[in-house]
Design brief:
The protein is mainly β and 223 residues long. The chain has a domain of 143 residues: Lipocalin, CATH 2.40.128. Helices cover 10% and strands 29% of the residues. The protein is built from two helices and eight strands, in the order ββββββββαα. An eight-stranded antiparallel beta barrel has the order 1-2-3-4-5-6-7-8. The longest helix has 15 residues.
């Protein structure tokens, strides 16, 4: 059985090999064996997850999914590696893999091989195993902020007193003038308007997938 998985983004600046210390890190963007897509792997709430982050032919749909409600979902950002847990004492993670080519989910493992390859193996009913090797196209991904519970800032004890308006200030000046007999000073002339600052140049197109831990199908499962 060959896992023809559908999956990331090739970084515009290119990619260089990682130091040996990161050899066992499966996170990052990986190009699948046949080159039709990349998978972005990240740690979400203690498990490794993977989702399609780039497609050679954009606009794919999960048409082979046995769930009728998912047949029209885009394959871009679709989860492929599902809830993979690290095996004790080994640089290997095990969980499930979804194969969009046949719409089936298999038991699977992922194992980093050196710094630039990720070996994935899947089995049906514990046998008929097959696999392939993916090639790294992006550096490891830091732990997602989505894994930490957001803490709201404490509310202030009370509202700050409102500043006196222009009319209140003018009345106070007139009252002071009536007491001392002095003529109140004329109001200061408004400062001349300055030219608006130029807007920064528009940045390039945003990453269409971003943090995969925030994707609804992953966030809803992992939290």
């Amino acid at each position: 059985m060959r896992l023809a998985l559908y999956t990331g983004i090739i970084l515009a600046g290119g990619y260089t090999s990682l130091p040996p210390a990161l050899a066992a890190d499966p996170t990052g963007d990986w190009r699948v064996a046949d080159g039709v897509a990349n998978i972005r792997v990240a740690q979400c709430n203690g498990s490794m997850w993977g989702a399609v982050s780039w497609e050679k032919k954009p606009g794919g749909r999960d048409e082979n999914n046995p769930d009728v409600s998912k047949k029209n979902r885009p394959t871009l950002a679709m989860p492929t590696l599902i809830d993979m847990k690290k095996k004790p004492g080994a640089d290997q993670w095990e969980g499930q893999v979804y194969n969009a080519q046949d719409g089936q989910t298999y038991s699977a493992t992922i194992t980093p091989v050196g710094t630039d390859q990720l070996e994935i193996k899947g089995c049906v009913m514990g046998f008929l195993c097959g696999g392939e090797t993916w090639t790294r196209v992006g550096p490891p991904i830091p732990l997602s902020p989505a894994n930490a519970m957001a803490k709201g800032a404490p509310k202030p004890a009370g509202a700050a007193p409102k500043a006196a308006g222009a009319q209140g200030t003018q009345a106070a000046q007139q009252g002071a003038a009536g007491t001392t007999g002095a003529t109140p000073p004329a109001p200061a002339a408004p400062a001349p308007k300055t030219a608006a600052a130029p807007k920064p140049a528009q940045k390039g197109a945003a990453d269409p997938v971003g943090d995969i831990c925030l994707l609804p199908e992953i966030a809803g499962f992992a939290h």
